[in-house]
Amino acid sequence: MFVLRRIHLHGTLKSIHSGPIEVHAASPAEALKAITRQVKGFGGNAVTGPLRVKVLGHETIEDLIAVGGARDLHLFPQLNGGKNGGFFQILIGAVLVAASFIAGPLIGPILLKIGIVMILGGILQLFNTPKRDNKDKEEKKSHYLGAPKNTVEIGTRIPILCGEDLVGGHYLSFNIDAVDTGVV
Q1: DSSP string covering the chain
Q2: Would you place residue 18 in the very low, low, confident or very high pLDDT band (cuts 50, 70, 90)?
């Protein structure tokens, strides 16, 4: 049973479409699928990746897939933080700033500066995403290709060179798996 659903965009999503979007859909997930496919701006880009949204009142995917549900959907941009270490650093910085007012004039300014720097560093840690470390993955090597690094993972950015330079190369995926069977 299709129901008329009104999708309200909030925050930075308002720049994509002004006013509510009306869609006939059986579930909230179908309504979201319809607008992300038809309204330009929901696809994201190569740098930031796909656009992530939060649907108010729907905490799990099962809530979105369920037939029926809310007729008015409110979409907010999902806020992504970096890592959890920033909160602890902010807390220590706040303690140092408070201790700087209690300490004497000799050590107080030093504690104040260290506390402010720790608070700012903690805030930056919350906003920055951690770098992905692929050292724990087992690297698949080919015995037939002789470049220093002869495998490229899916999604790896391949730089385009403009001008002249001495560079190595990446072998792109040819859908070939080299298997060493041990037979001589």
Answers
A1: --EEEEEEE-GGGGGT-SS-EEEEESSHHHHHHHHHHHSTTSS-BTTTBS--EEETT--SHHHHHSSS--SEEEEEEPP----THHHHHHHHHHHHHHHHHHS-TTTHHHHHHHHHHHHHHHHHHHHSPPPP--TTSPPP--SS--SSS----TT-------S-------PPP-S---------
A2: confident
